[in-house]
Amino acid sequence: MSEPGGGRGFGSSVPQRAPWSLVAATAALCLVSATSVWTAGASPMSREEKQKLGNQVLEMFDHAYGNYMEHAYPADELMPLTCRGRVRGQEPSRGDVDDALGKFSLTLIDSLDTLVVLNKTKEFEDAVRKVLRDVNLDNDVVVSVFETNIRVLGGLLGGHSLAIMLKEKGEYMQWYNDELLQMAKQLGYKLLPAFNTTSGLPYPRINLKFGIRKPEARTGTETDTCTACAGTLILEFAALSRFTGATIFEEYARKALDFLWEKRQRSSNLVGVTINIHTGDWVRKDSGVGAGIDSYYEYLLKAYVLLGDDSFLERFNTHYDAIMRYISQPPLLLDVHIHKPMLNARTWMDALLAFFPGLQVLKGDIRPAIETHEMLYQVIKKHNFLPEAFTTDFRVHWAQHPLRPEFAESTYFLYKATGDPYYLEVGKTLIENLNKYARVPCGFAAMKDVRTGSHEDRMDSFFLAEMFKYLYLLFADKEDVIFDIEDYIFTTEAHLLPLWLSTTNQRISKKNTTSEYTELDDSNFDWTCPNTQILFPNDPLYAQSIREPLKNVVDKSCPRGIIRVEESFRSGAKPPLRARDFMATNPEHLEILKKMGVSLIHLKDGRVQLVQHAIQAASSIDAEDGLRFMQEMIELSSQQQKEQQLPPRAVQIVSHPFFGRVVLTAGPAQFGLDLSKHKETRGFVASSKPYNGCSELTNPEAVMGKIALIQRGQCMFAEKARNIQNAGAIGGIVIDDNEGSSSDTAPLFQMAGDGRDTDDITIPMLFLFSKEGSIILDAIREYEEVEVLLSDKAKDRDPEMENEEEQPSSENDSQNQSAEQIASGSQEVDLVDQEPPEESSLNSHPESLSPAVTDNAASISPSEQNFNPTENHETTSLDGECTDLDNQLQEQSETEEDSNPNVSWGKKVQPIDSILADWNEDIEAFEMMEKDEL
Ligand code: DMJ
Q1: One domain, residues 701 and 615
Q2: 586 and 656 housed in the same domain
Q3: Is the model's pTM score more than 0.85?
Q4: Alpha carbon 438 to chain centroid distance?
Q5: Residue 847 Cβ contacting ligand 1 at under 6 Å
Q6: Atom 3, ligand 1: which residue's CA is nearest?
Q7: Which residues participate in Ca(2+) binding (predicted)?
Q8: Most buried in the list 485, 583, 679, 879, measured by CB within 10 Å?
Q9: Same domain, yes or no, for 101 and 128?
Q10: How far apart are CA 123 and CA 796, in angstroms?
Q11: Tens-digit pLDDT profile for residues 158-167
Q12: Domain span holding position 629
């Protein structure tokens, strides 16, 4: 084994023509000199302030890690709202998301190298001992191969890398004898059976104890996997091979990569999102840089950096060229079809693509990195966090945010590349938002809905593995980290692997499939990490000058079609037809439709269906206009649909020790006080008697002036509301009687009236699923007096209290003070009013996406015809079956109380198969994100 730090370069395989490739090793190296050339722009941040922010990150990490260790360990993850461990099988299943959990103390392993980066060497030593003592890798549990590789194998290898570094320094870890590496090897062998396919692509899941296929394994029947799932193994597997000398791991990972490369779409050089692991056929042919593909690209470039193997760079550059040609529309990155790469596959972006600017820095392509990062930052400024998906005109498409680190990662790399203090300010905002909106007494909670500020009982392990590393390193000077970070490369989970591995145990036979297809010349290297002098030719304001034109890109966004309209106006050409202007009775419009390949089908029931066949368009420009028109039509219709729905509401616990920190997602009512129009209602809670609220209350004195808690069931919602209102309650919260139900696992719905006039109900009523409701009930048991705020969006806490709580006066204070102690400083919370949410739509669950549009045509066409736009494929009938989505919605409305036809999201909606097909594509994409990548 080479000496750490002994072989910083790439070994002899690095070509002479790329002397700069040494600086490509990490992004930090890429533009080191840029820091010193910076002279103006955003005000520089003082060393003191950077240190203060660094200390704040340390305190936040302690809060997250300390609560995990105290309340969750040895469970895989912390549930920060209920303050306990998430143990698979003991909580309601969240579906594929749970495949990351293998009963192997995931968060502890994922946090190992973070402890060293954050200079917590003593804690690292303790943590390693715990892993060696407690962690069992032989559980009868089916886990995701991808997640287990990046989080657990990567975590063990990152821990090992830093353990040997510390041991060599001579102070800590003197007892360490490669035990983490032995565990990593054991895990590596456990994952190998997944590769037993003819293609060499791994099965997506494996049973840690029984492997694949055997009946006991309960897995091995899958046929598809995502590209990132099959293509994100090489760093960990190669490191394992090189650390141990067992070449099989690197060989298997290379074989999977070789197969993906072979299968790329040859004319576009793009890959799809999902591939059949047996046949190699693309199952999903859309292609972007976010969910499902992201880290495949990342690993090609980083494999080159770590292993010094040209073929990886060649492949990366070939793909990168295609990405920049088809997917990159700065500042946007939009999915396309691999066979028709000029056509966008969707009109929204997902949050996972936020890692891409960081990768572009490593590549050395700074301009588009700055542009995309700036766009993402503006979305964050609007919603405090990056929603899981947002549209091209920056509306929230999927409102969840599980504290993902990708944006922090890109911010760190851009700062290293540009030295522009603007990126420090960005990091500061991220820290503030995390403390303000995600911090709860027992850790940090994911956002269930960035618009309402409501929480989810979830703190994913990647939050500790990645977020704190990148934030800490952003503010750290070289001397703040006890080793040289530039000797390591970050895996996709931010685990650290030493660059000296490039020259160790290079016994793998390399099959260079690349040159069969790509003619290599110097241009293949053109983009990669050029010299800093070329990037910043004496222009210290480089980054700022790129951001400037994008200053208001989000606030003043106009749909892309509008840009085209303006362009055509300037050029004198006729502007393309906009969906909102379309009238089915206007012959000129019908003519334009025809040119765009869009046909109009009059259905028997009087409705009209739109179908586009790009091939029938008069020209490729008309085909593009047609596609845009169809997309606009879908968006317009769904937007109108959403506008008819009530958005979710928030129940915020404001009394001690919560002080507004815990926010629960609540369903609204179609009757009673409308919280979006009125001020929020605040009050102490009291359980009604009878608890179901179905008859006159026997404890009016207890609920008088309070917010009554009532159990769901046995009578109509409106009846419950009348009974508690008559008893003097100022509001009501209906708690689901279905034990274990949660808005994590069930689509939210709105409570309907009882078919009678409900104007007499004047108090606000909200609905909580059982799990969210029990957080309030538990709080009553523990603290007796529990005060809540019912509103349309969680409100800020009192700024004074916030200062006391979140700006620790010294590092020691901050690290020793528990959140509860901090919070108990003030009982009086003066809540600040906020603007109502900007979107009136609700999509906190993919299932709640409203699928159809049919009743809204009046605003589009005076003829009150209904439109059924479909994208680019044939559709013949409107009478398609309801999809699962509709069935789920339907189910939600079939309870005894909610018999009103308007009760559940989208129930008013008439299903149309072609619209559903489009929405289903979105939903599938979301599901895939959950399934394959967290
Ligand atoms: C992490 O587990 C990894 O970064 C992965 O590649 C994608 N997403 C999550 C965090 O969002």
Answers
A1: no
A2: no
A3: no
A4: 15
A5: no
A6: 493
A7: 492
A8: 485
A9: yes
A10: 34
A11: 999 999 999 9
A12: 579-644
What are the backbone angles phi and psi of residue 772, rounded to the nearest 5°? -70, -40
Q: Is residue 517, in this structure, part of any structural domain at all?
A: no
The verdict on 640 and 713 lying in the same domain is: no
Neighbours of 728 (CB within 10 A): 16
493 lines ligand 1 (CB under 6 A): yes
Q: Which range in 125-129, 631-635, 804-808 is most confidently predicted, on average pLDDT?
A: 125-129
Two structure tokens written together for 187: 């895990």
492 in a known ligand binding site: yes
pLDDT digits (tens, 9 = 90+) for 533-569: 344 444 568 898 899 888 888 876 644 433 333 344 4
CATH number of the domain at 421, please. 1.50.10.10
Cβ-based burial of 174 (10 A; exposed 0-12, middle 13-18, buried ≥19): exposed
By C-alpha distance, which of 337, 346, 341 is closest to 920? Answer: 346
CA distance 584 to 862: 8
Per-residue confidence (pLDDT) for residue 253, from 0 to 100: 98
Q: At residue 527, what is the residue type?
A: W
Q: What confidence tens digit (pLDDT) does each residue in 273-293 have?
A: 999 999 999 999 999 999 999
For residues 58 and 47, the answer to whether their CB atoms sit within 8 Å is no
- Catalytic residue numbers? 147, 294, 388, 406
Are 256 and 352 in the same domain? yes
Residue 334 structure tokens: 């939009």
Nearest residue CA, atom 10 of ligand 1? 404
Distance 465 CA to ligand 1 centre (A): 10
The 10s digit of each residue's pLDDT in 494-531 is: 999 999 998 877 766 555 444 444 444 555 545 444 33
Atom of ligand 1 nearest to the CA of 351: 11
Total domains, the chain: 3
For the chain, give the number of residues. 934
